[in-house]
Design a protein that fits this description.
- Keywords: Coiled coil, Signal.
- With 309 residues, this protein is an alpha+beta fold.
- The chain contains 3 helices and 21 strands.
- Strand 10 and strand 11 form a beta hairpin.
- It binds 2-acetamido-2-deoxy-beta-D-glucopyranose (4 copies).
- The site of one 2-acetamido-2-deoxy-beta-D-glucopyranose has 5 residues, from strand 12 and strand 15.
Length: 309
């Protein structure tokens, strides 16, 4: 979003400069507003600039940009509702919940994506056809600890299924199911290098609800993958640059690997994003994912095996 805005404003300045050379007057940069999470630009470049207005214009653009980014941050803070968090210096204050049952105003469906009944509840259904996926707004996850969790019921296997992420140039993060049904996570840093990329050894079972989750502890560099509340693999990241790439994209995708337009054939329910690492310690018998997101969830009765009290 930020990148787009900067590019747009630069284009405007360029237009202003060009016009001033041709003797035109007045370029105004006005009316850029933030509305419902979207940047609305009205009338950003208008007629006739005097050459000596360019300098003040540049200043104005800079101020405007600062105000906008500030308001964007405020907005994103407001998105994270109820829980205080322990993230360090993060802009994004989780948790965010997308129920994926048709009531999330922020979720947009694309192509043949739709909400459908499944096991007594309404869930997001992606039929695997090209162009069928869903979008949530993006939020600044780049310098924070994280937990991303979602219920998924795969309707077929043998192909790579995108679960949730921001995976097109310049590639930031993604959760996905690989062709042998292992649950995987990948993230790239600001230099475009993998911070991590790995998969569970357990496989997701087709036609059963499975709860998949990734936790990312940015300070320690700990990343863990959970299935049905059980921690299956963890990694310690040694790379020094652990900030995720900030792609500037305005949306994150459910069920789409955007660079290759690969989609998923599955139901999705209850996507949650926390700006902290949900706690896990076998020694202290703490497993917040299992306790709060799996065992207490109605879908746990429809999921496979490992969930027990
Ligand atoms: C250009 O801007 C100045 C200052 O805002 C204004 O007084 C003038 O009328 C404008 N000229 C045109 C042609 O719009
Ligand atoms: C800017 O846009 C808003 C919303 O569309 C409108 O209410 C307002 O009058 C506009 N202001 C100017 C200076 O054009
Ligand atoms: C959607 O999910 C939320 C949270 O579980 C629930 O409060 C709401 O009633 C559900 N709506 C529908 C239409 O299923
Ligand atoms: C992860 O899954 C594999 C395959 O089912 C299993 O052998 C392994 O014990 C699991 N790891 C943990 C830590 O539970």
């Amino acid at each position: 979003m930020k990148t787009t805005l900067v590019l747009f404003l630069s284009a405007c300045l360029y237009a202003a400069a060009t016009r001033s050379q041709t003797g035109a007057k007045n370029v105004s940069v006005d009316n850029v507003t933030l509305s419902d999470g979207k940047i609305v630009v009205q009338q950003i470049c208008t007629s006739d600039a005097a050459a000596n207005e360019i300098t003040s214009l540049k200043k104005e653009v800079k101020q405007l940009k600062e105000v906008l980014l500030q308001r964007l941050d405020e907005l994103l803070r407001r998105l994270g509702k109820d829980e205080s968090t322990s993230g360090q210096g993060d802009l994004f204050n989780g948790p965010l919940s997308f129920w994926l049952n048709g009531t999330d105003s922020q979720v947009s469906l694309r192509g043949s994506a739709r909400y459908g009944e499944q096991d007594g509840r309404t869930a997001l259904y992606l039929d695997g056809s090209s162009g069928a996926f869903a979008e949530t707004p993006s939020f600044p996850i780049y310098r924070t600890s994280l937990t991303i969790a979602v219920w998924i019921k795969m309707k077929s296997s043998g192909a790579q299924y995108a679960v949730y992420g921001d995976w097109s140039y310049p590639w930031s993060f993604r959760l996905f199911i690989d062709p042998s049904s292992h649950f995987c996570a990948q993230a790239r840093n600001t230099a475009g290098k993998d911070i991590f990329r790995f998969c569970t050894r357990d496989a997701v079972v087709v036609n059963k609800w499975t709860h998949v989750a990734m936790t990312w502890g940015r300070t320690q560099g700990t990343v863990r993958l959970f299935m049905n509340g059980e921690m299956n693999v963890s990694r310690k990241v040694t790379r020094r640059s652990k900030d995720f790439m900030n792609s500037g994209h305005s949306v994150f995708d459910i069920g789409l690997k955007r660079d290759s337009r690969t989609t998923a054939h599955a139901y999705f329910s209850d996507l949650m994003v926390f700006s902290r690492e949900l706690r896990f310690s076998p020694i202290k018998n703490v497993n917040e994912i299992k306790e709060y997101l799996v065992l207490k969830h109605p879908l746990s009765k429809d999921s496979v095996g490992t969930v027990g009290v």
